[in-house]
């Protein structure tokens, strides 16, 4: 009899974290490594946010808080949803957790029963299916294609829904593809959901403020107000505000669901870091002008990476509407061999050999549910991206 829980056999460690850890390990051993695996901006947290955290510490705001967030932060979140998304919530409809991942996990743990299904569009963020499995549910993968720029169609969503479906997890702009759904595309999906009143919607809007080329962001309950009572709108400060390590995520939804999530959190982590909560208040209430300047840099980096990777024979690289990822296909490279005779049978072998031979760390597409691809995070310097793409180009030219 094994000591460990049988539940662990249903899940795997996060591949993105594993790639980042491997890159750090090689770099610490003296190897020349460029890590493009982590979904983390290289910008520092804005000074006004850091100053707010320092003021909170100086004021002695270092004690326990309410389990799912201080009232000041919940009020700031309500103001954000009204300002940015035309959604009206009250503080008792808001939950604050230790990062966006905990918010999603709490919601699943609070609602899933054996046999319940969750529709997830592939390519997907690596943690969605495993969180569903940990919560005792069954992930149902609806695979989008390159022909729709990796966005799920209404017909695909309709086909994936069954009487057992409890949630549809929606992510736009997408991790890993950066694809964003415009108003019309999202309306087609919400029309499907309106025909299935037993299906709830869990949005992951973490990349909301990372949209480019005048692309306009929308969230499901904003497009279809009748979905308001069965939508959990999730977000956080990690990406746009360069606060990944501060670990603050939040969501708003029906009071009963928020109360159930609070119960889960009360018996797991309790409140998020107090200082981080006060920093998040400033992030949401304070100046937002830096977002425009940061996005200009992200657009430049996106264009650099797309241009350099698109120049590789056998590789195609769509232009994403948001986030800070590209998701190139290596369909034209499958079956080729490296100089040492290794056959590129799949994207995992491609990513492994790329790291071993060139020191460039990327995440293989199978981790996101769609191959043959790999994900590049361009949330790093122009110099590092240029050098990394040159190495990828050189590596690909050696394949025969």
From TrEMBL:
Enzyme class: transferase
Keywords assigned by UniProt, alphabetized: Aminotransferase, Pyridoxal phosphate, Transferase
Pfam families in the cross-refs: Aminotran_1_2
Signal peptide: none
Gene Ontology BP annotations: amino acid metabolic process
Requisite cofactors: pyridoxal 5'-phosphate
Domain Aminotransferase class I/classII large positions: 32-392
Entry GO MF terms: L-aspartate:2-oxoglutarate aminotransferase activity; pyridoxal phosphate binding
UniProt subunit comment: Homodimer.
Protein name (Swiss-Prot/TrEMBL): Aminotransferase
């Amino acid at each position: 009899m094994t000591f460990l829980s049988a539940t662990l056999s249903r899940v795997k460690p996060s591949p993105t974290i594993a790639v980042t850890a491997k890159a750090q390990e090689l770099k610490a051993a003296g190897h020349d490594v460029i890590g493009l695996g982590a979904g983390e901006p290289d910008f520092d947290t804005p000074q006004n946010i850091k100053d707010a955290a320092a003021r909170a510490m100086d004021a002695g705001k270092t004690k326990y808080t309410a389990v799912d967030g201080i009232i000041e932060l919940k009020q700031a979140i309500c103001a954000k949803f009204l300002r940015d998304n035309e959604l009206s919530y009250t503080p008792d409809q808001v939950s604050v957790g230790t990062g966006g991942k905990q918010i999603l996990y709490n919601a699943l743990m609070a609602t899933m029963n054996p046999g319940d299904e969750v529709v997830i569009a592939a390519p997907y963020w690596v943690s969605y299916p495993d969180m569903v499995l940990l919560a005792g549910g069954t992930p149902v993968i609806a695979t989008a294609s390159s022909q729709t720029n990796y966005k799920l169609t209404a017909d695909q969503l309709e086909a994936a829904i069954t009487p057992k479906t409890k949630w549809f997890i929606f992510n736009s702009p997408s991790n890993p593809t950066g694809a964003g759904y415009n108003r019309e595309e999202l309306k087609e999906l919400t029309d499907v959901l309106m025909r299935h009143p037993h299906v709830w919607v869990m949005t992951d809007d973490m990349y909301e403020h990372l949209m480019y080329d005048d692309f306009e962001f929308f969230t499901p309950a904003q497009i279809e107000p009748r979905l308001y009572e069965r939508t959990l709108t999730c977000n956080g400060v990690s990406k746009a505000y360069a606060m990944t390590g501060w670990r603050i995520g939040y969501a708003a939804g029906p009071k009963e669901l928020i109360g159930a999530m609070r119960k889960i959190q009360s018996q797991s982590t309790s409140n998020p870091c107090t200082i981080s909560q006060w920093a998040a208040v400033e992030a949401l209430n304070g100046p937002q002008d830096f977002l425009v300047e940061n996005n200009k840099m992200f657009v430049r980096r996106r264009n650099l990476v797309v241009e350099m990777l698109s120049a590789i024979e056998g590789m195609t690289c769509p232009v994403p509407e948001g986030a800070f990822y590209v998701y190139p296909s290596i369909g034209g490279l499958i079956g080729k061999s490296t100089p040492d005779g290794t056959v590129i049978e799949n994207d995992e072998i491609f990513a492994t050999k790329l790291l071993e031979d060139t020191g460039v760390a990327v995440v293989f597409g199978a981790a996101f549910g769609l191959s043959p691809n790999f994900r590049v995070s361009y949330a790093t310097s122009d110099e590092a991206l240029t050098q990394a793409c040159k190495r990828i180009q050189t590596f690909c030219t050696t394949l025969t």
